[in-house]
UniProtKB/TrEMBL annotation:
Bias (Polar residues): 197-214
Gene: flgG
Upper lineage: Bacteria, Pseudomonadati, Pseudomonadota, Alphaproteobacteria, Hyphomicrobiales
Organism name: Pseudolabrys taiwanensis
Protein name: Flagellar basal-body rod protein FlgG
Keywords annotated in UniProt: Bacterial flagellum, Cell projection, Cilium, Flagellum
Renumbered residue ranges of the record's region Disordered: 194-214
Amino acid sequence: MRALHTAATGMMAQELNVQVISNNIANMRTTGYKRQRAEFQDLLYEHVNRVGTQTSSQGNILPAGIELGSGVKTVGTPRLMSQGELAQTGKDYDIAIRGEGFFKILMPDGRTAYTRDGSFELDQQGRLVTAQGNVVQPQITIPANASSVSINSQGQVSITQQGTTTQTQIGQLQLSIFVNKAGLQSMGDNLYMETPASGTPQDGTPSTDGFGNLQQGYLEQANVESVSEISDLIAAQRAYEMNAKVISAADQMLSATSNLMR
């Protein structure tokens, strides 16, 4: 019976939907995390009576045909790249992006990754790095005798050396933007990789046209809304239950049919 297969595709789709929602909820406190959304499309149809066909020699047209669908499929789990709230931390090397753009990160294999997570640290050489020790690009090195570090909204990194009150600029942070940022590939560790779908990155200075500005001492929070996720979870659960009910009803109908043949 067709209904068994159709309902099974619905159950598999909602199972995947719950997996996506659970990942969003699990990352509610992940810095710079962007929530995902499962998107679905209906499958092919069997046209028993095709709409618009001629039904008589007088030229009558069938106004509504008979189309039997075969279920649902998942077509994507795109990320919603909306801005997350900024939380103040007061830490010198915590940097939040307000607006468009990603930090460039040099990976150990030489590839370039991108992130919205600005919770940076210093390595043994004084370089600005991620929590995994990957170097931020362009490379910023803080001297050992720096008594304070200042990063303005344009990404200019300045220090005050011990014994002085004069600030000296030692570097310039840059951001990268993409034509289709939802086309970036997630790598884990809050990192993304460029893909043909995302387009090539465009590098620029923060606070210029098309680029966001930087906020020192802040971190961008995940853009996950707990109420929305719980609401979506309940809807997915109910859809799963209804598809399971269809399978149960179809099974009872098949059972009744087989009993007639005894």
